[in-house]
Amino acid sequence: MRKPIAEVIESGTRSFVAEVYREAEPPAFGAWVRVPGGAAVLYAVVSHVEIGSVEPNRRAVAFGKTPDELRREMPQVLELLRTTFRAQVVAYRPEGGPLRQTLPPQPADIHAFVAPCPADEVKALGAPFDYLRTLVRHPDPSVPVDDLLVALLGQIYTAHGGPHGGEQALLAAGRVLSRLMDDDHERLQSVLRRVVV
């Protein structure tokens, strides 16, 4: 497993919020992450990344300095910031069992480690793409679902080898999305056109 980049600080069956470690790079919007637990490994898609104050009632203020100047002259200011992300849980693998593209029976544990998914696990999260139904029909209300799909499909394309296999994965996902979007070809074309390939 890859080195953890974050820790779960809020958890539900459908999503969790994790705080990124200071030395770690936050995951990208649409990236796959995994949370190992006692009975199962949970797989989720990052749907929101936020940088803000450690103290909820204190807002960050502008200082008119570059990030390098802030690090040099006022390092304490950066200590008051934290990065969090919300991830939509879309699949899980019970210990010793097969991958299931559905919500897990239990949420992620608080303080569980979160790590990026390696490419082989993202590939395993391919066909039949059942989790796309969850994302399209029951999206995170604060995120434009089409933009999340664009980012997610880009991750799938890359994990399947880019131009050497990724196109087949995109075609298969596109077929599923076409049905889920009630054959709204204009919407589907808009999503697929924006996938970075």
How would you describe this protein?
It is a single chain. Helix 4 (131-137) crosses helix 6 (166-180). This protein has helices at residues 67-73, 75-79, 119-124, 131-137, 145-159, 166-180, 185-194; strands at 6-11, 15-20, 32-36, 40-53, 81-94, 113-116. A hairpin with a 3-residue loop joins strand 1 and strand 2. The mean pLDDT is 89. By secondary structure, it is of the alpha+beta class. The protein is globular and about 55 Å long.
Mean pLDDT: 89
* Global geometry: globular
Distance between the termini: 27 Å
Model regions low in confidence, pLDDT < 50 over at least 5 residues: none
Structural class call reads alpha+beta
Strand content: 15-25%
Query: So how many helices?
Result: 7
Describe the biggest sheet? 6 strands, antiparallel, barrel
DSSP strand count? 6
Order of helices and strands: EEEEHHEEHHHHH
Approximate helicity band: 25-40%
What strand order characterises the main sheet? 1-2-5-4-3-6
**Rg value:** 18 Å
